[in-house]
Design goal:
By secondary structure, the chain is α+β, with helices and mostly antiparallel strands. 36% of the residues lie in helices and 18% in strands. The chain is built from 6 helices and 10 strands, in the order ββαβαβββααββααββ. The chain has helices at 19-25, 38-49, 81-94, 104-108, 140-151, 156-173; strands at 4-5, 8-10, 26-28, 54-56, 62-63, 73-79, 120-125, 138-139, 177-179, 185-188. The strands form 3 sheets. Strands 2, 3, 4, 5, 6 and 7 form a 6-stranded antiparallel β-sheet that branches. A two-stranded antiparallel sheet has the order 1-8. It has a two-stranded antiparallel ribbon with strand order 9-10. Strand 9 and strand 10 (185-188) form a beta hairpin. The longest helix has 18 residues, at 156-173. The relative contact order is 0.19. The model is unreliable at 176-191 (pLDDT under 50).
């Protein structure tokens, strides 16, 4: 996978994620409304992906990249998870046509705390700050490398907390270093 876009879809395939499948489960989607605000992005995702309702998955899926950056993270949108979960359960009991598939990659990104159903859309985002500059368009290979990095057992929540601390220290002390009153460096924060 080589293309670049401002959004990628992580497709649900109903299986546990394995490195060999990841590249086949991510696809670029250029969001024309990207950067105009969540409401515009959600509306476009509904129109283009056929979702009835889009959730910002802020509690479920925010994850930092594999290269140590702390000024931006990947942010996910997805369909209403409760509706998707209930539909998948109903399909099993009522012999209805196959409902939404379980998304093993997206579920992995919750550290196993939640099952994610159906496809999810991933964009780059970050805290509003003049110091947080990041490329809006990113390469699918970078996303794939990050997903494989987490697949090797790294805990999304732990990495997220470490990067948030690093960002906070960098913003507070500048460049991750604290200075004493005489200007001499006496602490260096490396998380």
């Amino acid at each position: 996978m080589d293309p670049s876009a401002n959004c990628f879809i992580i497709r649900a395939n109903g299986r546990n994620p394995v490195a060999a499948d990841i590249s086949s489960q991510i696809a670029p989607l250029d969001l024309k409304s990207y950067g105009r605000g969540e409401a515009y992005e959600k509306k476009e995702l509904c129109q283009r992906l056929g979702w009835q309702q889009v959730w910002s998955m802020t509690e479920e899926i925010n994850f930092y990249g594999h290269e140590g950056e702390d000024g931006w993270y990947y942010f996910a949108y997805g369909p209403n998870q409760e509706q998707m979960r209930l539909r998948s359960l109903q399909d099993k009991t009522d012999n209805l046509p196959k409902g939404p598939k379980w998304n093993g990659i997206a579920s992995m990104l919750t550290d196993g705390k939640r099952d994610i159903w159906g496809d999810v859309a991933v964009v780059r985002s970050g805290p509003a700050s003049p110091s947080n500059k990041y490329e809006e368009v990113f390469n699918g290979k970078d996303l794939e490398a990050t997903l494989n990095w987490y697949l090797k057992g790294r805990k999304v929540g732990k990495i997220y907390d470490e990067r948030e601390k690093s960002r906070a220290m960098r913003m507070y002390f500048g460049n991750g270093s604290a200075m004493n009153m005489n200007g001499a460096q006496y602490m260096n924060f490396k998380f």
